[in-house]
Amino acid sequence: MIIDKDITVIVPVHNGDTTIEDTIISLERQKDISLIKEILIINDKSSDNSLLKINSLINIYKNIRLINNKENLGLAGCYNMGIKKCSTDFFILTHQDITLCGKRCISSSVEPLTDSNVVATFPVITLPFNIWRKFGFWQRCMFSRFVGKTFTSDLIGKFDCYNKKLLLDSVGFFRPEIFRTAGEDTDMKMRIIKKGLFVRKAVTKVLHIHSKESNFPLIKWFKKEAQLAEARGAFLKTHGVRFLIFAPTIFFREFLILTAVLLPVSCIPAILIFLYSVFYTHTMIFHCPKDSKIAVLPFINIGIFATNFVFFLRGLITGRQKL
């Protein structure tokens, strides 16, 4: 079923100049790189040095093709563009900040697709302490829940591999009109399941290196949380109770805040919110105890809680993720 050079790797890039070289070099060093017909990089109107970095990679590696967007399409829009442009039977979607562990990640990602009922595969993701410690303070806070852990998140665009024909014949393209920059992958998984088809975990392992910018601002953390919360609201509007059953813990923070609003005479929800706000970034207490900003973290986390709730409601009301 798998033939030589029958896979396209699609890499959307938006302001990824600190990581895109690591991502492409990691891919090019795979021992099974011969399976890749083309690496399709879609520069989604970056305003940093991403285009310069991509052009330097093109001068080194001859299997890279660049699409330079004149307007920002968002992640799901770039996925669809890449799928339409690729001519291979299989494609891999990966973000601009993913590097590969092991030497045959391409083969391991595509292998489960030999099952005719499997539409896509996803990898195991890890964030080691040695990478996390290089982040700025607020970025460390943002990813403190994941550091030192290995986890799977089903389809999440971190080296997901698809059977193109099965996807388009049975499910269709991503839906950027609903999920523009977040939530598009889980929406795709729900649609695959509804068709009676499957996604499978591959034995592939990847590192999520995130951004290497030294001055990662607090506002970016808030924006990311708002982005994901808006996607959760849009999910609930789009998939209804089925999604609530599918992933009930995703709405834990929104449930706490809603309980506090509806039961203002009870102090229990407020206490739970404060305790959770302390626990949310507890890794920082152990690994950055001397940083003075630790003292304000619980209050920052409460602000994150409130932001989550506001944007969750926006996504729920509008039925769209567009931040």
Task: Give a brief rundown of this model.
38% of the residues are buried. The chain has helices spanning 20-28, 50-60, 74-85, 105-110, 129-132, 137-142, 164-170, 184-194, 218-239, 241-246, 252-262, 268-279, 282-287, 297-318; strands at 7-13, 36-43, 64-68, 90-94, 98-101, 118-126, 150-151, 158-163, 198-208.
Note down, in words, how this protein is organized.
The mean pLDDT is 91. This protein has helices at 20-28, 50-60, 74-85, 105-110, 129-132, 137-142, 164-170, 184-194, 218-239, 241-246, 252-262, 268-279, 282-287, 297-318; strands at residues 7-13, 36-43, 64-68, 90-94, 98-101, 118-126, 150-151, 158-163, 198-208. 45% of the residues lie in helices and 18% in strands. Strands 1, 2, 3, 4, 5, 6, 7, 8 and 9 form a 9-stranded mixed β-sheet that branches. It is built from 14 helices and 9 strands. α11 (252-262) runs antiparallel to α12 (268-279). The longest helix is centred in the C-terminal third of the chain and has 22 residues, at 218-239. The protein is of the alpha/beta class and 323 residues long. The chain has 2 domains: 7-208, Spore Coat Polysaccharide Biosynthesis Protein SpsA, Chain A (Alpha-Beta Complex), CATH 3.90.550.10; 218-318, no CATH class.
